[in-house]
Structures are given as C-alpha cells and as structure tokens.
Amino acid sequence: MRKLRAWCLRFAALFRKEQQDRELAEELESHLQMHIADGVRAGLTAEEARRQASIALGGLEQVKEHFRDRRGFPALEAVIQDVRFGFRMPRKSPGFTAVAVLTLALGIGATTAIFTLIHAVLLNSLPVAKPGELYRVGDVEQCCNNGEIQGNWSIFSYEQYKYFRDHTPGFVELAAFQAGTEMVGVRRANSSQPAQSMRIEFVSGNYFATFGIRPYAGRALAPEDDRKDEPPVAVISYRAWQETFGADPSVIGGAFTINNQPFTVIGIAPRSFFGDRLTNLAAFWIPIEDQPLINPIYPLVNTAQQNWLDLIGRLCPGGDPKQIGTRMQVELQQWLLSPIAQLQTADRASVPKQTLRLSPGGAGIRMLRDQYSSSLQLLMWISALVLAIACANVANLMLVRATGRKAQTAIQAALGAPLSRQIRQALIESVMLALVGGLAGIAVAFAGTRLILRLAFQNTSLAIHASPSLPVLAFAFGVSILTGILFGVAPAWITAKTAPIDALKGVGRSSGRSGWAQKSLIVAQAGLSVVLLASALLLTQSLRNMRGQNFGFDTPNRYILHIDPQMARYKPAQMLAVYRELQDLLSAIPGVSRVSFSLYTPMEGDNWSEFVYIDGQTPPPPVHNNEVSWLRVSAGYFETLGTKILQGRSFSEQDTPTSEPVAVVNEKFAKTFFKGENPIGKHFGFYMVWKKVGNFEIVGVTEDTKYGEPTKNFAPMFFLPAAQSVPSVDDARFSHFEDASHILNAVELSTLGKVPGLEMKVRDAIAKVNPDLAVIDFRSFAQQVDNAFSQQTMIATLTSLFGLVALVLAAVGLYGVTAYSVERHTSEIGIRMALGAERGEVLGLVLREGGKLAFVGVFIGVMAALGLTRLMGALLYGVSPADPLTFAGVAVLLMAVAVVACYIPARRAMRVDPMVALRHE
Amino acid sequence: MGEKPDVWQGTLSVMVLKTLQTMGPLHGYGIARRIEQTSGDLLCVNYGTLYPSLLKLEQEGYIASEWGVSDNNRKAKYYKLTRAGRKQLEKEAREWEQATTILARFLSPGEKSS
After folding, report:
1. Using a CB-CB distance cutoff of 8 angstroms, which residues of chain B are in contact with residue A59?
2. Would you tell me how many other CB atoms lie within 10 Å of the CB of residue A201?
3. pLDDT digits (tens, 9 = 90+) for A872-911
4. List of residues 6+ apart from B100 with CB closer than 8 A
C-alpha cells in the first residue's frame, strides 16, 4: 500500500517539476545558511564556515540530482524526453519524414495486407461459441463421392451420419451438413417476379445448436424441423436478408417457394455467421430431410451409398478426439459390413483398412485453405522482401542523416551524455517513425486487401473482409516496432562510433565507414529488387502462356449460363421438349447465332469421369488408368463453342434415341486408345464395376480440348449426344447417373458481335418458358475462362506491383546515396576541376560509382533469384524458372534505372563551380 | 573527520523517524545534526543522501512537511512524524531489537546453543 502511494506521488511529481525544484533549492539554501551560522557561532570566520558547510553538504547539483531521482521516475522522464525529441526531429525535416513514412507504409502495408488474408483464410476460427471444442470427422477435403470406398473417410451418407450420431457418446452434438452449397430458384409466394437463383445448404436439425449460434431474429432450426412430415422451413443468412430482401422484417415467417416448393423462413442467422466455409456462402439453411423436396431427381437422403455430408461435432468437455476417432473408425467398419451399406462384395475385403480421424473443426471446412495456402505463403515471402527493401531504404536515409548529425552527436557525447542514452534516443526516433509508417501502412493494407479480394475471388460470395481486425492491427504494430528497431540500428551504430573528440576536430569531413554501410544497403536493395522483378516477370509470362494456349475452343462472342430444371420440377422425360422450346426462344433473340446445351462447360470446375472399355481390346485390369472425362452435349455444341472437328462429323439432329448410339472423342482419346489407327467406326463403352455398359460408335474426332486445370496436359475426353441414352442395365447406381446425365445444366450461346442487353433478353426468354426456372451465373465464356486463372492473376499482379515498388525504392535509395555523396565531395570535385578535370570526367566518376553498386547488386540478385525462382517451378507454366531472357531483361532494366537515378546528382556534380566549391568549407 | 563511518544503508530512515519522535518537528539540518550528536559524533550523515531519504519517507506517508521559521528567523522546511510514521517506527524498532539480540547471541563468547 505504502509503495503504491509512493508510486502515485512520484508519478504526480512528473507534472510539477518546476515548483518542486524551487522548493528543494530553498530548502538546501536554508540548510547551508544554518550550517554556516553554526560555524560562525563556533568561532570560524564567515568564509571558513561557508567552506566547511559546503564540503559537508557535498556538490549541490549532485544532491539535487539524487533528490530528483527519488522524486519522479528518471528513466521514464528520459524516455518521455526522447519521445518528445523524436517528435520534434521529423517536423524539422518534413521531406525526409514524408519519404520515410511513405516507404514504410508501402512495406508494412504490403505485409499487413497479405497477413489479413492469411489470418482470414488460414488462421481464423468461425464466429461460434468455443470453436476449440469443435472437431470435424475426417481430415481431408472431398467435394463429392459416389459411393466408392474412400480409404481415409471424410464425407458421409445420411445413413452413416445417423449411425454415428446415435452410437458415439463422445459428442455433445454431432451435426451434418452438405459438402458445399447448391443453387436453387427462390421466389416469394404469390410474387409475379421470376425466380432468383440463390445458394442453399442442407444441414441437420442440430446444426445451429452444435455451433452454439443464436439467431439474429426469429428462431434457428431445431431437430424437430428435420423430419420428413414437418412443414418445410429455412433459416436465411443475414447477408441475403439484407441484400436480396432489403432487410424486410416480414421475411421472418414469410412464405417462399424454393424450387417451386412452399417453404417458411423461420429466422435470420446472426450477422457474423457465414456458414461453415469461406466461399459460395449459403443464403438459406434447410433441414436435410427436405432435400428430396428440392432435388426430386437426386434424392440423397435415403441412398446409403451417396456420400455428400460433412460432419462436425462438439466434443464433451475433456473428450479426447483421438479416442473418439478410433471408436468411430470401428463404428464405420461395422456399418460398412452391415446390410444397409450394400457394399460390393469385392470391396468387403478392404473394410478393415478403412480409416477415420478427427481434425480440429473450429475453423470450419477449409477447401480454400488447401487451394490458397501455397500462393499465400509465396505472397507473404514476397511482401516480406518488399518490407526488407523498405527497411533498407529508410535505414539508408537515417544513415545519411545520422552522418549529417555527427557534429551534434559528438557535442552531446562531449557534454557527458551516456552512450546508452544516445543509442536509445536514436532507436526511439526510428521506432516512432516506423509507428507512423505503420499507421499509414494500415490504410495501404486495407486498400491492398480489397484489391486482392477483387482479383482473386471476383464474383464469388466470400466471408473475408478487408477491414483490419484486432489480430491484424496487432500484427501491423509488431511489424512496425520490429522494422523501427531494424532500420534504427544503423544510425544508432553511427552514433556509437562517434567519439567526443570529433566535436573538437570539427566534423563534416567524410569518413569511409558510414559510406561502406550505405553501399552495402544499396547493393542489398538492388539485389532484392532483382529477385522480386524476376519473380514478377516469370509469373506474368507464365500467366500469359496459360491464357494464350489453345484450349480447343474459342471464347469471343460466346456466353454461358446455367439452369437447373429441378427448379421448375421437370421430370427427365419432359426435358427434350423443354430444351427444344428454350432453343427456339433463345435462337429468336436477334444477334444470337447458335444455341446449345451440355452437362457442363469448359473451365467451370465441373467434371464427370468414368472408366471405359474399348471394343476388341482386353478389358482393363481392376486397377486401371483409363478413367476418362466425358459429357453429354446437344447437337451443334462443338460449333457453338468453336471446337474444330478434325475427322468425321459432329452431332446432328439425326442422332436420335432410335438411331445408332454414337460418340465423338478428342484427339488425345484417339491417340491414347487407338495409337495411330483410324478411330472412326471403332466402338467403346463405359466399364462400370467390371461390367461393359453401352457401346458407342465413334463418328468424329475433335481437336484436343482442355476442360479442367489449365496448367495440366490435355486429357482424353469423349462426348455423347443429349438425345441418346444408354440402354438401361440392372444397376441402380448406373441408371441414376444415366438419368442425371440428361439434365443439361449448361446453356451456351454464340452471337454475331456484341448484342446490347443480351443478358436481359436471355432472362426474359427463360422466364417465358417457366418463371420458376432461374438463370444461374450468366457470363461471357472469356470471363469464365479468366475465373479459372484468378489465383494466378492475383499472384502475378501482386508480385508485379511489389516488384514495381521495389524498383522505385531501389531507385530512390540509389539517388539518395549518390546525391549525398556528391554533396559531401563538393570540395573534392571542385579541386579536381580546378586542377583541370573535364566535366565529362566528373560525370563519369559519379556515374561509375553508382553503376558499380548497382552492378554488384544486380549480380548478387541474379544469383539469388536463380536459386529462389526454382522453388516457384510448380507455379510456372511454359516458362523455365531460369529463363535467360527474363533475367537479362531484369538486369538491363535495373541498370537503366540505376543510371537514371545516378545521372541527376551526377549532372549537379558536373556543374560544380570550382571557386564556390573551394570556399565551401 | 574522514575517519567517521557513514550511516549504514537502511538505518537512516529509522534514525530520522526516532529523531522526529524525540524532538518533534524539525528541519533537515536539525535532523542531521541531532543524528550526529546522538551517535556521539561517531557517525557522519551524508547530507546528500538525507534529503532523498526524507522525500522517500514523505512519499510513503511516514512524515509530513511544512514550511516554517527557524530559531534564528530563517525560512526552513519542517518535518514531523505522522501516525503511520509512529507505527512504522515501533515496527522497525522491534525488528532492530530482534536483529541485534540475535546477532549478540552469535557474537557473545562461551554461550552454547542447546
């Protein structure tokens, strides 16, 4: 208590220094006077008494200093003084401060922007209660599975979920939800507007309870809602409520139709909750049991082989995830052997090898994490390089200034300022500069994050915000302090090297030491810039190669949209008529030249693949590598997308359900399976579970086509006509696929030039066929293909941006050092010129000095870049990580910039008037 | 004069408190002289350390100060013991007694601990 009181008083004393100083002086004076009076009384002369009293009291100033140490907090006061000083100095040189702050803002901003993304994508937890208790069943990401045995299980059927839920006591709650979201057509009941396409996610009744989420309004789903005979209900997301329904309060309890089925919206999810993933966010959460209502063609609920659910559970307090995982693995194996699983006899042997593990689920399901972690890491490294360059630049500026301030430092030292205090003061100044830079950097980071989100995710709905969160602010603060110390070390070092004697000698004369430090900083900057620029150029070239490749289709004047016939509750048998009507209405739009339909389109992320057998060849062994991508397309599909037919013919209206079953294959297919023989007229079919299904005659060969990953090689593909179907075989799973493959979700249009208002006209035409048939994702083909490169575009753009910043910073650094060196050597240059040096020689002298530094930097940078770009090899397409042209270009570019940066001060040196220069000192 | 030992570390505050208890309100110079006299001029108070020590005691609330006028009509700062100071003095006196007794037992010859 006493201590605390003393601390408070000491703290208060900080604010009334002057009065207390005066009182102390008075007190000591009275002390002295009393002592002198005593001395005189004892018979000393007044002078002797004063002398003795003074000796006894000791040095008056020392006593005062001791007293002051006790009165306040001397260390704190000194720091306050330094901070004040630190504030004063930048204001005295606004130009220097502006450049330093700007440089730091770029460096810190770049790093913070990337960290914002890393935090959101890789580190952040879901905004739910106690995310640490949540565990996911499985530890890999799968989008879909058609009942194959998984090996390591992570995606489950509804039957499996119910089995786990009822047999695993380790969870307080175990929730199931669709792996991903799907598009449905949504209308308010009794509205005349056509349906809107929105995303829904099927979730178990305890979904919200498991995450511990209270609704923003209304009520959340409850287990009672998740029953077949209950009236269908849905919870809407806050975002959809705001953006699609204008925050209309009557949405709660409101009647809607989803895929033409009546639904009641019972509540609104909280604002912060976006669902269990970061992309393709659900607008509605709907009980799993309602799935057959919405997707009558693909009822998944009663199919034990359809694995389509992710599971996340809340562990009982103190529960051991490892133990529960082991228990669930046993449950899984038991379930697989039970009759309900209907396992293929051939698969039964592998049941004991099936595994299942729990993984932390507090962050939700993170497909995005796997997709982006490597590129985010690359960007983090690149932004760290930018920060390093910024640090070097500011260090250089500080160095120049510290050298300029040497006289001041020497005088301070001569007056008795302790070295530690001087170094501390230099560091405080740089840290403060860095903090101001960091503050500006947060603004840069905000803008940067928005840019990145726009580049990388374009149209997808996303649960990532650019606005800085607390961890991001903490990160920026930490980085600022760290950089402040990093670039403050240089001036502090100069300070430490300054001897008090320099004050007497008269400073201002150049010494070689600081020059050396500056030069190495310049070399480092140039080197780092080379690394960045080389990476940027390689990535940009790789992107250009990816985009410019021949995909086997043309994008100009082509448009793609999707429909889901389930929205209008069409039966598969009705589809042919619907497509005919759509074809007529869409073709009637002026400017539209061709219309076709297909199961999916290139580069949209969808893929169907199956094993095939070739007639006349031995069927492949059980473990085979002839899994081939395929799709159903309507007549005129190849013409609409601009895929060339190399041999034979494409599909036509003559390919009917009753005509000979036919197929078109791509060149790669022909090469892979017929090795030089003419493929036309050959037969092949599906090879499903060791049964030959279907037999198609090849009537045409297209050029090679790329439908999936743009960086992968061409793969064999084949196409089947929409009008034909494979004769039904005795396999429920196959007939299910056969039906589904006739739902052609993609519509392709090609036009004659630009058609104004095309999207509106298409929407009208489709609404005319059926107002419940919503248009999903209308976009140009070029846009769709570009979306496939969004991640590469983001990396290339950002790296180029960072490279440009690095180049500018290196140029500024080189300019600064050269200019400073010219100024320091003004008299030397004057003497040389007085002795007869030509102006051209002086110019050459200065340029050579700067050029030498840049050259060393470029050399080191090229060496380092050659080593580092090799690590990027996996990200590059069609360009070698050691591409000589790129490296030569970067080297030339940097040297050119260096020469320009040096030329400006060099010209000034050339114009030095010898007489003025000699009088300089 | 140079032979006299300085006041031991940590004992000055007790001496100040005791002096103020005996003498009543007193100024810094008076406290110093009184300590020297009490010690039979065996101790020498370093005036430089006296004033920070007084400040510390005041900050801790054991003494209070006010400006007054000395015997020979000089303005001086007078220190006096507070209630907390009196208690603190009793406590410290007890502790010192204990400490010296213990030390004395160690140092007195012939006595054995049982």
Report:
1. 48
2. 23
3. 887 788 888 888 999 999 999 999 988 888 888 888 888 7
4. none
